[in-house]
Design brief:
Number of strands: 19
Structural class: alpha+beta
Low-confidence stretches: none
Shape: elongated
Largest sheet: 10 strands, antiparallel
Length: 595
Amino acid sequence: MAPLKGIARERGGWWHAYVCPAHGVELDHGDLFTGVFPEGGARCAHGCRVDDEKVRGAWLVLSHQAWARRLRLLAHRGERTEAVARLTEYAGLYAELASDSHGEAQEWMLRGRLFHQALTDAIWAVNIGHAVTTLAGQRTDDLAPLLPLLDSLEQAALDARGVLTGQGLLASNYTAWLNAAGAATGPAAAMVRGQEWDGAKQWLEGEHGLYAHLRVAVADDGWEWEGSTYYHGFVLRAALLALRSADPAAIPSDVVGVLAGMTDVLAAIATPGGILPALHDGPYRRHPLALEWLELVALAQQLVPSPALVAVATRARAELGAQDDGLDRELDGWFAGPPLPERPGPGAVTVFPQTGHAVLRAAGIHALLDFGPHGGSHGHRDKLSLYLYGDSTPWQPDPGQVPYAHLEFRDLYASTEAHPAFRIDGAEQAECTGSLLGTDGASVTAEVTEAYEGVRAVRRIAVGDCYLVDLLTVSAAGERRITAQLRPGTALDIQLQAAGPVRTTWYGDETLHGWHTGTPGVPVRPVAVPGPGPADDPQRTRTRVDFTAGAERVTFASVYQAASAGPAVVGVRLDGDVLTVELADGSTARFRTEG
């Protein structure tokens, strides 16, 4: 490990402000261990240098959080002298700077002490607490100076949780991390004092503890209530971190069921190559996120093992390369007992009816249909979006989200325009909830009736022998301009034919072929235009395609086949409400538009 440098001597701000105002990309972190903001300003991938108070405050968040993670790693690796010295430095810094709430936080924020947000304080406190716990497991004679820090962090978490629960927000993802902070710092302080920890009632078992939070924050189908991949993993990781040294067999059975269900969700939506689609708000791709997925998988495999998550960790480690700090490999023995039985793998079709996500797998295609509740402040206007992935290729991904402080790009990536959904008259969908009409072992059908006044849309996704069928039917009370949208994450070619379907080819590590047609007699105009790609870089353009018809009712029919699958599709025809697909071997199959 490289020699450590300096800890910044200032409070942190809000990390989401670490974004280029011109280009919408997260700024380069530079060296987070110097304690000094990058000279000349933070670098943007497109050549900008950005330096203002908000960006500096965001960099301080990243720096302090990186230090907390590094201290936890040092403790695990037995580098005690450095770890204790730095923790003692932080104890003094916290006492100096963080005796009261942060005065520069925005009005909507639950105020923190070292940072703008109490959530950020809690995340930092979890790593600090676990670093001290690891050190105290070896000996405690040099740790007494850390007690004021640990006690203050626990009290700050308790105070912030009291504000949240007083507002009726037990289900907030903040609550998970505040409980995790208390469950990390409390036991650490008890170990330093040579006492038994008596805080399980407060932080785990009590009225506002972790178990109570999980019981209200997670739907019966296993999803954290916001339906966001990122915040789902965020809450699950907090819970697993909070349960250090717990015996899996001693955790309440319903709570184990919740944790197992949350793990199953990630296993179901992950592609065979380890991509976790960025449903609703959450980063599309960033190095700190890869570290989080590595940690989550390492912890989950010790509680409810899931073979499907191994690929997630492998992909995250490949994305990190030299930035992989190896902390996930230091977490063996996190729980006090053996893991529970291995989880079964997902089937061809998995439906999450409460949250409104469905996953379908078809011969090299991994598809997700989004039809459920909006998802609160982290929801997107994306009803009936269809996302398409190969094992390791995001052909048509959920585009994710930029750092939240960039208001213009944040609104863009939450918009209907940015998603492979449908639009009416070029307008945005209303925030609304769709419903599941039916599902079987090979198809899912969902509808939405509140996205636009007087408009009903039904999308049926079906798994064929070696292809995927997409049937989107939109009907209105009168003629409207109805658009079905393709939003690639990779390079795409579109070709019109003199007769027959429009053809598309989607590139990447794997190749996808598409055939697109519509209701006979209803003219459909395909228009290809350049537009922003996924949210990790809004300046990266992709070829978007809008299929638009002026009609009271139209069906947009598509068939997708991975290049690796066969026999090849040779014919696609829509007759009324029936789509016929012909294969090179002479076989045919028919699919009705609304099941």
